[in-house]
Design brief:
By secondary structure, the protein is mostly helical. About 70% of the residues lie in helices and about 0% in strands. The protein has 7 helices and no strands. The longest helix is centred in the C-terminal third of the chain and has 30 residues. The chain is globular. The protein starts with a helix and ends with a helix.
């Protein structure tokens, strides 16, 4: 059973890495997003950044999972699992934001077709499944749940500067996530951080329950 779980995790992680890399590279050649004029523009979206972060966390775990399958290791290192925890939470924030806020505004055609299907749906689910049910070697401590907030805080700070402080008229970003609708960016940011932390806590609970069940 353990070998099957490790093999499944390895396969999913490889798919995540390859798919994310291929889609990110494709942005430099083609994009159906009117807000993306060059490949570099794609990095201003949390969708792209969170998926890359999740893919990097998957990439880190791949060699360890190979070693486990070869019998050279017994478990995944804590640091790598924590990295996956952070990447998974970030990309799940993308998923929740798309489903709850953006889908009603932009529609399914724009958000869930083509490469968006992977970046908004398939990628986040793959990261969630591997972390919750397959990479269950170490428990996540309660204080470590705050690590999941780091990507949101960093991206939120950049978004605040570009959208609110600089503004679109002065060369900043347009408010494509509508986080500053009505000028209430501070409420939106607070809600996002709380939602991210709650998602991290829920993922931690399920993950730790699977670790306990495995042991």
């Amino acid at each position: 059973m353990v070998n099957k779980k490790n093999l499944a995790a390895l396969i999913l992680n490889i798919l995540v890495v390859v798919s994310t890399a291929a889609i990110t590279i494709s942005y430099f050649f083609y994009s159906n997003n009117p807000l993306v004029e060059t490949g570099v523009d794609s990095f201003k979206f949390f969708t792209t950044d969170s998926n890359i972060l999740a893919a990097l966390s998957s990439l880190v775990l791949i060699p360890y999972e190979v070693q486990i399958l070869k019998g050279k290791r017994e478990s995944l290192p804590r640091g790598a699992v924590l990295f996956k925890f952070v990447g998974m939470t970030s990309v799940m924030l993308t998923f929740v934001t798309v489903i709850t806020l953006l889908l009603p505004q932009y529609g399914a055609v724009f958000l869930l077709l083509g490469t968006s299907f992977y970046m908004h749906l398939a990628g986040p689910i793959a990261a969630l499944v591997t972390f919750l049910f397959l990479e269950t070697d170490v428990k996540i401590r309660l204080p470590e749940a705050f690590l999941a907030l780091i990507p949101s805080v960093l991206y939120g700070s950049v978004y605040l500067v570009e959208v609110v402080i600089i503004g679109e008229k002065n060369g900043g970003w347009m408010d494509f996530y509508t986080f500053n609708r009505g000028g209430y960016w501070y409420i939106t940011m607070f809600v996002i951080l709380i939602a991210t932390y709650l998602m991290a806590l829920l993922a931690r609970f399920i993950h730790n329950s699977m670790v306990k069940s495995k042991n």
